């Protein structure tokens, strides 16, 4: 005899628990990677940090590659969704540009991007990992670019807009790297204020042309 | 009896040989770090690449930290000196900005900066290395900033100039990171063209104010 169906009311909590476990592992993987880097972020170490048994962790993510790539993808999607939610609250005019730059800065100087730097560097000397990271990077990069356009409220079919937005994201990446070893926030604040005024002028110029 | 003085004519070649050995080790360390990263760049591996015995390498550089930090310092100084030499040949006007941005891009997307990224990431999870890298980074960072000002021929006492030049170097760092896993040169070319026109406008604006 097969086991009786527990019914949707009982099946649901088990799926919820599995989802919650998965989520704890993904978040712990980002924290771990940001703090101790690639070599210290094994599935066992991340499982312990997440308060999940090693067996359960390996059931969700058989290898460190699977865990870390899923973590960067999941947390990136979550951050981008949060940014999108705030789009409606943004001020208009030059203040909007500064607000968007602050949002981008916040995303790039936090643990997610720190984790991503560790992943990239590990992938640069590991051919198999490199292939997988390139696919993920292209996908997250495209979506980040789209979100930045939405937040700024600009049209990238206008000449120069696409490149100015890309330069903003490249600059944020460079500032994240400068923040890796010490707190660079005071210098960064001045650089970003100047950048906001340059971006404002460039977008105004582009829309006139 | 003490050994007879070999005279300057004979002592010189030995000093030259030692200097040449040191230089080969420093250059090999940058190549090695850029290609295989921190964990693969031991003194023994670098010595082999440089064609120097392990004993001789360890005489010059007792530890990997000594070797890699000396290499990043030496090669950075050399590149900055080369940039300075070209300052006199630079065109004037907006073409000068584009020429300087190309020089900065060339410095940041080559093996030296790739090696520096590996060093930074290794230092981010090694407290002792971190302290030494921060001292080196501050020194090289200051000199790079000074060379960029000289090449652009701008005065950083004018409001906004300092930050615009810093943003240029931060952008170059971000572009270097984007180039770590795949050839990003086509996209980078478009971003830098846009950046040159934004920097040109910002520097012109600053000098008017």
UniProtKB/TrEMBL annotation, chains A, B:
Pfam family, one: TetR_N
Sorted UniProt keywords: DNA-binding
Domain HTH tetR-type: 19-79
GO molecular function list: DNA-binding transcription factor activity; transcription cis-regulatory region binding
DNA-binding region residue numbers: 42-61
SUPFAM superfamilies membership: Homeodomain-like
Annotated protein name in UniProt: TetR family transcriptional regulator
């Amino acid at each position: 005899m097969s086991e009786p169906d527990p019914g949707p009311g009982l099946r649901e909590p088990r799926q919820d628990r599995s989802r919650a476990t998965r989520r704890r592992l993904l978040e712990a993987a980002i924290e771990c990677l940001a703090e101790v880097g690639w070599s210290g972020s094994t599935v066992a170490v991340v499982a312990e940090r997440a308060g999940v048994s090693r067996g359960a962790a390996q059931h969700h993510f058989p290898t460190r590659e699977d865990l870390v790539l899923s973590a960067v993808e999941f947390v990136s999607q979550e951050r981008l969704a949060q940014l999108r939610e705030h789009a409606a609250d943004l001020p208009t005019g030059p203040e909007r540009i500064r607000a968007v730059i602050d949002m981008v800065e916040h995303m790039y100087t936090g643990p997610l991007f720190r984790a991503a730097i560790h992943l990239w560097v590990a992938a640069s000397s590991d051919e198999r990992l490199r292939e997988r990271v390139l696919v993920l990077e292209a996908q997250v990069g495209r979506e980040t670019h789209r979100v930045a356009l939405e937040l700024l409220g600009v049209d990238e079919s206008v000449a120069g807009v696409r490149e100015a937005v890309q330069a903003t994201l490249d600059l944020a990446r460079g500032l994240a790297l400068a923040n890796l070893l010490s707190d660079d926030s005071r210098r960064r604040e001045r650089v970003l204020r100047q950048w906001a005024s340059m971006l404002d002028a460039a977008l105004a110029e582009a829309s006139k042309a």
